[in-house]
Specification:
The complex is a heterodimer of chains A (158) and B (239). Chain A has 158 residues and is an all-beta fold. Chain A is built from one helix and nine strands, in the order ββββββββαβ. Chain B has 239 residues and is mainly beta. Classes of the chains: A mainly beta (158), B mainly beta (239).
Chain lengths: 158, 239
């Protein structure tokens, strides 16, 4: 079973396109909903304070020096992403205010991901314990994939 | 000059020349070393600092390939080591345009060097003899100008995880030499006026008021944890 094998692929609005006026059909919008396996990371300081709007950099297992994805944590220090089917060690770095933390997630077919992340070292001061990255979720995530199809129109100014 | 050497190293590596499978060690005090503390990035107590020299001495420097990756959560690193040796005394003000000072290059097996151990140790000779870290410069605040020399004899052992920065580092491949970096965070020592005054860094930092009489002062590194790998963390322990 692949990580995307649970896709139920409901095509929600395709039929609705038929009913909309001709002018609107020029940019048809389709929404496909599916369930995917996602990784959710929680970045926080050792005080428990979340790392809000921290930069997240993702490197896929097959290209460890090329950025696969970029993002920002939310107000709770959480960032969720859906990896592709590349197996091996993915690396996620979280950076804020001159300090960064690294976490690794091992992805393999039909296996629960294995996380390697720093939770800080006992007896160390604030800088070493400042950042913690935890894998807090691996599982099904319902998503809606918006597909915009720009159809050619005779009247480009309309 | 450092840039030219690095460029030559990279070109040599790309062409499959003698520099293939090499690993270069750099040290950096970041732009706070080369540009000083200037507004708005003053010390936590409002001083502007201009450094003429920052002499730091490193020893027992070893890059490691670790699997699983070492996460800087203890003093011991297990993996495949490549030793740079030492000691190396670097002036972190005399750096290249990217604030790096090149220390050494060694042959290294291919792989990802995702951990680095190193010691900050007192220099055994030269202008900084007896001191592991020495700052020379001028401090200014409200029209007052103070020349200073700040020194510490403290030795600190560091066990660091992967470099964290704008790009990943430490990868050595066929024809592609790699780099590892020792980074000193000077704001942990002096604090930052543009950061939260109640934050961990500013609560722990020495600031500059204690040295405002000018001249030579000694300080203790204590638990300031200035040693890093880029933005990545290290486990540290006094020697």
């Amino acid at each position: 079973m692949t990580r995307r094998s649970s896709v139920f692929a409901a095509l929600l609005l395709a039929a609705g396109v038929v009913a909309i006026p001709e002018a609107a059909r020029a940019h048809a919008a389709l929404i496909e909903a599916e369930t995917v396996q996602a990784i959710r990371l929680h970045a926080q300081y050792d005080t428990g304070e979340p790392m809000v709007e921290a930069q997240v950099i993702i490197y896929a297992a097959d290209s460890p020096t090329r950025v696969w994805g970029l993002g920002l944590t939310d107000a709770a220090g959480v960032y969720t992403f859906v990896p592709d089917d590349t197996e091996g060690r993915w690396t996620i770095q979280v950076r804020q205010a001159g300090h960064g933390a690294t976490a690794h997630v091992e992805l393999a077919q039909d296996a629960v991901p294995v996380l390697t992340a720093s939770a800080g070292a006992a007896g160390q001061g604030w800088p070493q314990r400042a950042l913690m990255v935890a894998l807090v979720a691996w599982g099904a995530l319902g998503t809606a994939l918006f597909v915009l199809r720009n159809r050619k129109r005779d009247n480009a100014s309309a | 000059m450092h840039r030219l050497f690095l460029l030559a190293t990279l070109l040599g590596g790309v062409s499959g020349g003698a520099h293939a499978d090499r690993l270069t060690l750099f040290a950096s005090g970041e732009d706070l070393a080369t540009q000083g503390f200037a507004a708005p990035r003053l010390t936590r107590d409002g001083w502007a600092l201009e450094f003429t020299r920052i002499l730091a001495t490193f020893d027992q420097v070893t890059a490691w390939q670790t699997d699983p990756p070492f996460m800087a959560d203890g003093p011991d690193i297990t993996g495949r080591p490549v030793s740079f040796g030492g000691p190396f005394t670097a002036d972190l003000v005399d750096a290249d345009d990217t604030d790096l000072v090149e220390l050494a290059t060694v042959d290294a097996p291919k792989g990802h060097y995702n951990a680095l151990s190193w010691a900050l140790v007192p220099a055994t000779g030269g202008d900084a003899e007896g001191f592991s870290l020495m700052f020379e410069g001028v401090a200014r605040r409200d029209g007052e100008e103070v020349e200073f020399t700040l020194m510490t004899t403290d030795g600190v052992m560091h066990a660091c995880g992967e470099f964290v920065g704008d790009t990943r580092k430490g990868f050595v491949a066929e024809g592609k030499p790699g780099a590892v970096e020792i980074t000193l965070h000077l704001d942990h020592l002096f604090g930052r006026a543009d950061r939260d005054s109640g934050g961990g860094m500013n609560m722990e930092a020495l600031g500059f008021d204690a040295f405002a009489t000018g001249g030579a002062h000694e300080f203790a590194l204590g638990r300031l944890h200035i040693g890093h790998v880029g933005e990545g963390h290290c486990h540290d322990a006094p020697l």
